[in-house]
Amino acid sequence: MTSIRQASPTDISNLNLCNLDPLTENYARKFYFDYLVRWPTMFIVAENLRGQIIAYVMGKVEEDPDYVKLLGTDKYLPWHGHVTCLTVAPQYRQMGLAKTLTARLDEACEQENAWFMDLFVRVSNKTAINMYKGMGYSVYRRVVDYYSDNPTGNGSSEDAFDMRKSLSRDKTNRYIRKDGENYRINPEDIYHA
Predict the structure, then answer these.
(1) SS3 assignment, position 191
(2) What distance in Å separates the CA atoms of residue 55 and residue 90, rounded to the nearest whole number?
(3) pLDDT for 148
């Protein structure tokens, strides 16, 4: 039996089963605590019967600063949810935990009246890409050399797909793009393209 719950401060020291995976981004402890304090309902863990954290998702809601809007650019990103990190310990994969945690985060962002969800995923992570597509996400654009490492061994860096999913507030899919796999940008242009 697995329980899904909001993360607590003591969980930060118990993420090893998940964080030892090469596809999982690891952060300084302060980063995890910042998320827990700023977006407590968007840091969700799955715990097994032995009390081990076997999966977690960290997310947030954000928007571009007002000055971007004042510049008159159409690149302004409104209030939206972001999946910062989603990971499942290898021995607990293929059980639906990633889908369950992502759906819970989507719900939390709906409650915050976000326009859409977004996330970045390695282009080599076909399992995750297919899961996200099955949950209604689509590729908005490809960010060239987004990841500075490449666990596949094919080069020194790896591209990311910026994937998005409209939430109920965005009734016209304004922040979704068709054929996003072919829309390439550089990492420095993420907030300007």
Answers:
(1) coil
(2) 9
(3) 80
- Structural contact between residues 101 and 55, judged by C-beta atoms closer than 8 angstroms: yes
Other C-beta atoms closer than 10 Å to the C-beta of 44 total 22
What six digits make up the tokens of 91?
Answer: 């021995």
107: enclosing H helix or E strand: helix 97-111
Total residue length of the chain: 193
Residue 135 near residue 102 (C-beta atoms within 8 A) = yes
The band of 133, judged by pLDDT with boundaries at 50, 70 and 90, is: very high
Element (H, E) at 59: strand 53-62
Dist. CA 41–CA 136, nearest whole Å = 22
Q: Which tokens in the block code for residue 184?
A: 């390439």
Q: What is the pTM of this model?
A: 0.87
Angle (CA) 46-50-52 rounded to 5° is: 45
pLDDT of residue 136: 95
Tokens representing residue 162 in the block: 């910026």
Give the whole-angstrom CA distance, residue 123 versus residue 94: 19
Q: What is the largest CA-CA distance in the chain?
A: 54
pLDDT above 90: residue 121: yes
Please give the C-alpha separations between residue 29 and each of 11, 19, 48, 167, in angstroms, as whole numbers: 11, 12, 22, 31
Tally Cβ neighbours within 10 Å of residue 15.
24
